[in-house]
Write a sequence for this structure.
């Protein structure tokens, strides 16, 4: 099974136009999973938003500190139990974790039932209620496949129109019926979060209503790019590292002439400069049978970093840098294999004077940018 990518969508609005939304949401990726968190702070406005954001930050910190999902969830529920009915920050929340194999766990505390979006139809997610101390929490377990997903939402959605267009609100069952109606008409699944949110706002009508948030997760086959740059710190590991790189899924890219020579020797292939490259800005590229793209190293990576946020319409029509950009920007997951062998050229004053950052530094900065755009980036030092 290849990399299963979770595409995340969201739609959110505040109770009163111009006020801060009392709901907050977050998502992050690790090499093993995608995690989504939706929290609803007590009350509305900026105070509720702060409470919801604090709950999310606490849960993220526990998970990043190595807590299991269940242990982190239990800890935050205990904190909320102490805060209930006091002046302490209080929020209710749902957390969903989708592992790379599709195994999914949804844990909820005082939040509406989530919706499972199948390939052809949706259903309210079956939830098993248990108690943690005196608090009731819900747990759902399932496997998601490509073309399937989840919808999480705050009670501003399920209370939509209460006392008005809907006497008792818009329950998860009714939201699910609406989603199924949308699927029957051919609606795109990635647009369901926005569609449900818009319908809830319509049901509230001119009433002040409540903060409304819908968080969507849609699984699809992920696009992977793997980049090998820099020889290993120990030459004895050259062949093993090259073999590991070649075994990775997706598009294979080598950045650096010395690194490319290592791969060429292992493949018993000839490394050739690309004669078609005529850019006056970008370094020339190479061709190597068995590898999708071969470029120069530090200079090309620096140029990639510099254009990552630029308008592609202004790029050169074709160069080693723009080809690298195209490969990276179309990927959902990027694996970097970064060699630890020292490159004396990186210490050359000419490199420093031109502002060319060493390989390890520019790759770290590239990773930050790519992660901020929702991509999964894994860096392995060799």
């Amino acid at each position: 099974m290849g990399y299963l990518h979770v595409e995340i969508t969201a739609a959110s609005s505040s109770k009163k136009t111009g006020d801060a939304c009392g709901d907050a949401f977050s998502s992050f990726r690790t090499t093993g999973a995608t995690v989504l968190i939706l929290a609803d702070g007590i009350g509305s406005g900026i105070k509720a938003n702060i409470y919801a954001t604090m709950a999310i930050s606490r849960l993220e910190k526990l998970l990043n500190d190595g807590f299991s999902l269940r242990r982190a969830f239990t800890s935050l529920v205990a904190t909320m139990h102490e805060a209930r009915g006091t002046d302490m920050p209080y929020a209710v929340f749902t957390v969903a974790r989708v592992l790379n194999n599709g195994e999914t766990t949804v844990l909820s505390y005082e939040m509406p039932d989530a919706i499972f979006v199948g390939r052809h139809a949706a259903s309210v997610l079956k939830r098993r209620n248990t108690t943690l101390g005196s608090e009731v929490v819900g747990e759902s377990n399932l496997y998601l496949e490509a073309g399937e997903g989840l919808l999480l939402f705050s009670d501003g959605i399920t209370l939509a129109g209460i006392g008005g267009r809907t006497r008792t609100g818009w329950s998860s069952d009714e939201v699910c019926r609406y989603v199924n109606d949308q699927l029957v008409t051919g609606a795109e699944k990635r647009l369901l979060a926005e569609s449900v949110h818009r319908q809830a706002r319509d049901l509230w009508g001119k009433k002040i209503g409540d903060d409304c948030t819908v968080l969507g997760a849609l699984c699809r086959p992920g696009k992977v790019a793997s980049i090998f740059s820099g020889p290993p710190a120990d030459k004895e590991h050259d062949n093993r590292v090259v073999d590991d790189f070649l075994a990775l899924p997706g598009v294979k890219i080598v950045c650096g002439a010395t690194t490319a020579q290592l791969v060429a020797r292992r493949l018993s292939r000839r490394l050739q400069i690309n004669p078609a490259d005529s850019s006056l800005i970008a370094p020339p590229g190479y061709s190597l049978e068995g590898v999708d793209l071969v470029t120069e190293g530090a200079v090309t990576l620096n140029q990639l970093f510099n254009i990552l946020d630029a308008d592609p319409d202004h790029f050169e029509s074709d160069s080693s840098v723009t080809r690298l950009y195209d490969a990276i920007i179309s990927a959902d997951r990027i694996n970097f294999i970064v060699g630890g062998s020292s490159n004396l050229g990186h210490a050359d004053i000419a490199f420093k004077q031109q502002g060319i950052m060493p390989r390890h530094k520019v790759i770290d900065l590239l990773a930050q940018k790519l992660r901020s755009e929702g991509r999964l980036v894994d860096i392995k030092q060799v």
Summary: The longest helix spans residues 45-64.
